[in-house]
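Dear support,

I submitted the protein below through the web form. The confirmation email said the job was done, but the results page showed an empty box. After a refresh the structure appeared. I'm attaching both so you can tell me whether what I see now is the final result or a partial one.
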Amino acid sequence: MPSIHAPHASHFYPHNSGQNLANPTAGQTLAHGPTGFWVKANSLEALAHMGAALLVLLLSVATFTISTLFGVLASFSMTLLLAIMLPAATPVLLITAFMFQNMAVAFFIPLMGDGAGFDAVRGLNFIILLTAFSSFILAAFLHTNRLPKQTRHWLLLTLAVIGLVVLYLGLGAVRGDIKDALIYFRNTLTPLASFAIGLSVASLYRVHMSKILLWLGLAAIAYGYAELFFTFDFLALFNGDEYFYLRLAGQIESGYWDRIMEQTGFVLRGLDDVMMVPFLNMQFFDQWFPRVFRLSGPNIHPISYAYALAVISAFMLYSKRGWFLFLSIPLLLIIGSKGALVLLLCAISLKISTKLIGLRLSVIGMVLVLTAYIGAAIIYGRANGDYHVLGFLAGIRDFLRNPAGQGLGFGGNLSSSIKNVLSWTRAQHLGVADIPVESALGVMLYQMGIATTFYFALLIGIIRACYKMFVRTGAEVYLFGIAAITTIIANSVLQEEAIYSPLALGLTLCMVGISMGQYWRQQNGKIYQKQRSAHA
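What the results page shows now:
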């Protein structure tokens, strides 16, 4: 359990180094003197946090080669130790695990033994998440008065929504397959827990996340270009190709590709059929552009990788590092995730329009444009039998039939409940899927019913808090929260990954939580200094 103590004023102010989320480059113009010294000190501290996170991640993956039980216990222990000894590095570990865990898993594949070990180790980032979340929440409740009042307020709201998620986990486990229920518990909980971790840590400690996120983003971009130019030759360097083969073998054994063949006529011939896609992943462009190698990134999942690039790029844009976009946009276009591209486009547009017409009109305009975009996509998709639209409409239909919800694990791309139920041929004929899939909002309405409104109400509340913070401070980092969360909510209508991928909403809420926590930590620092002066 992390220790929470009455913080010294130096925890709140980085000694005039200018290292803050609103302006991470401020104060770095002096090469000598106190400012230059503290800039170097902050960089060394950030490197220490980064190194500790990477070490814990690699050691945790390695322990799973001994046994699954030993891996679970060892990764729990190392994460807990990091949270106690170096709490400010905990969000770094979480985000590093989200982004690079699967690359590390691929490296250790020859030592994994069987497919069961491979499946087990891929749940490592959830072990890290639960351990960090539990430790900081427990510490927060044991030392409630030492957290900023606003942090306590948001943690209680988040815990209330998590309580609903746990309730529907129980319902899904009793009524259906417990494995499916646990999968969607992980997917639904991850964004909320990520927000709580970022918020609680940054409310007490100085987190160098802007600098570290830049380093992680550059590493992810370097990986993407290596994958683009050298494809399987690059992947073979760390057994990345074996990772794909193992995952494909699991899909074949589950009967997934048999169902695809029956429903669409597509016959899987090899890995190239999965990895080569048309431009923007749309068949329309097949006649205009050659097929491209679909990049999967170090997390080895194309859509999640695209969201990671888009979220990091948006954050860098608001951190006065707009040059990052020129490196990431070519990769985003090649991956072809429209949701991630829309997120980045909204972030750019909000930044420009806020300077021209103000925040209020800019946010209203963004919401109207996103509403029109989703509405047009639904109309077009319904007319053309788009799977995402048909899956969303199924969610609306089944929510109206049972507003209480079915429980976690029912419906969704990762659930076994869709086997022998979902037929895309029938869905296209009827204009609605047999069971909700391909839409996070549709699946969540089906699983959690009316409780889904509380989940999205929390997200809207966070957007509103970012709005108020920007008005109060003028710090553009809060525009990131407004643009990213609003776009992800819109994308969730037609994409499961928008909510359920840790590198989409999870990464976004972790960064927003850090920015909110840092602001309240600084405000508490001013109050603390005034109290010390009054007693002096």
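Response: this is the final, complete result; the empty box was a page-load delay. Residues 5-35, 528-536 have pLDDT under 50 and may be disordered.
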